[in-house]
Each structure stands twice: as C-alpha cells, then as structure tokens.
C-alpha cells in the first residue's frame, strides 16, 4: 500500500466528522485570480462537509490606483458584496485557507496588514492549533509563489497553528504545477491562468478540512 492509498483510506475514515469543521477562506485579490481560487476552495470544503465562510481582507490601495486599472476596478465592483474578514472570523473557524498574489516573494500589504491586527488573539492563545493552508499566484512560473506561501507559514508558526500543506498527497498536485507548499498558479498579462489548478485547490481544501477534523477529534 502506497502513501496515497494510506491518505485516501484515512480520508474515508474521517468523512463522518468533517461536517463539524468550520473553515474560513480568506483571500486578497486585485483582479480576480485569488478570488477564483478562494471560490474553488470554498466549493471543495463544502463538498467535504465543512461549514465555510468566504471573506476578503480590506483593500488598502488608493482609489486613484484602482481607477487607473480597468480590471482591478471591475473586480472591486463585482465583489463588493463579499464580506471583509474580521478577528471574530478567525476565532470562529477551526481552519483557514489563505489565498493571495505574491509581492516580491512576500505577502501583499493588504494581507500582511490584516495579519498584523491579530496580536490580541495570539496573546490570548486563540490561534493555537488552528489548521492552516496557503495558496498564491504570480505573473511567471518563478515569480515568488512558493516564497509567498512559505512566508505566510512563518506567521502561522508563531500562532502555533498546524500547517496543512498539500505536499504530494494526490496526483493533482503534479498536474497543477507541482507546488507542495500550496497550490499556485501563473497568470498572463490578460489575467488568464496558465495551469489548470481547480482540482488541486479542491484537493487542498479537502485535505485542510480532513486534518482539521482529526485535530478536533483529538481535542474532544
């Protein structure tokens, strides 16, 4: 029996408890790529039986910058009804999936600013043992996607969270570009995704929910 067979066996064994998991999918997206990835994560987690909140981090860019980019402006208008994430969402959830574009191999300022507001929850121990997974995008295959996800995980280690990276637990990881840290995608200048990552995102969401269910069982 191989590692994938073992994982799938454990996956089936935990299905009955996965409905108890509460997941927050938290994203930042300027023109829509990471919003789409977040939507796929939401869908995958719901199929796994989780209760899911899809929320975005607040936009910090000046209005003039947004207005100067038609795609950015159009996406802002199209997603104006998506709720913004709050600290209560972090306390509510058992697990988080973060999705964001890379900024010079690091988190975008919008995501970093939100994470910097979590000190109170961290101090009270409210973020310990949360299960976390990350996803990212860039404009070229080596544009910093892996570094961005790993930088997210550095913060999660300070939280005492449990990182649920996809690794190579399913063949979809190879088909989507092979990033073991978290699903990532390359986007061309017209905003088109260059890899087919939908199944990989859904697998990552199910894996996150599955691991969160194991953690919850262990805490009972």
From TrEMBL:
<dbReference type="InterPro" id="IPR008254">
    <property type="entry name" value="Flavodoxin/NO_synth"/>
</dbReference>
<dbReference type="InterPro" id="IPR005025">
    <property type="entry name" value="FMN_Rdtase-like_dom"/>
</dbReference>
<feature type="domain" description="Flavodoxin-like">
    <location>
        <begin position="23"/>
        <end position="209"/>
    </location>
</feature>
<dbReference type="GO" id="GO:0010181">
    <property type="term" value="F:FMN binding"/>
</dbReference>
<dbReference type="GO" id="GO:0003955">
    <property type="term" value="F:NAD(P)H dehydrogenase (quinone) activity"/>
</dbReference>
<dbReference type="Pfam" id="PF03358">
    <property type="entry name" value="FMN_red"/>
</dbReference>
<dbReference type="GO" id="GO:0016020">
    <property type="term" value="C:membrane"/>
</dbReference>
<dbReference type="InterPro" id="IPR010089">
    <property type="entry name" value="Flavoprotein_WrbA-like"/>
</dbReference>
<comment type="similarity">
    <text>Belongs to the WrbA family.</text>
</comment>
<protein>
    <submittedName>
        <fullName>NAD(P)H:quinone oxidoreductase, type IV</fullName>
    </submittedName>
</protein>
<dbReference type="InterPro" id="IPR029039">
    <property type="entry name" value="Flavoprotein-like_sf"/>
</dbReference>
């Amino acid at each position: 029996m191989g590692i994938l067979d073992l994982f799938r066996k454990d996956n089936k064994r935990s299905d009955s408890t996965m409905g108890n998991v509460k997941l927050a999918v938290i994203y930042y997206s300027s023109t829509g790529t990471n919003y789409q990835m977040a939507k796929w994560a939401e869908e995958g987690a719901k199929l796994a039986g989780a209760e899911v909140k899809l929320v975005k981090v607040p936009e910090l860019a000046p209005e003039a910058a947004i207005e100067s980019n038609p795609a950015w402006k159009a996406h802002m208008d199209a997603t104006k009804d998506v709720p913004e994430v709050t600290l209560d969402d972090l306390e509510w959830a058992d697990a988080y999936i973060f999705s964001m574009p890379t900024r010079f191999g690091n988190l975008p300022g919008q995501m970093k600013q939100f994470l910097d507001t979590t000190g109170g929850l961290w101090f009270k121990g409210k973020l310990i043992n949360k299960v976390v997974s990350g996803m990212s995008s860039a404009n070229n295959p080596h544009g910093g996607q892996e570094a961005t996800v790993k930088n997210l995980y550095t913060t999660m280690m300070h939280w005492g969270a449990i990182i649920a990276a996809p690794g190579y637990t399913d063949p979809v990881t190879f088909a989507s570009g092979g990033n073991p840290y978290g699903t990532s995608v390359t986007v061309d200048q017209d905003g088109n995704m260059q890899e087919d990552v939908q199944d990989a995102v859904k697998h990552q969401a199910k894996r996150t929910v599955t691991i969160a269910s194991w953690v919850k069982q262990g805490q009972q």
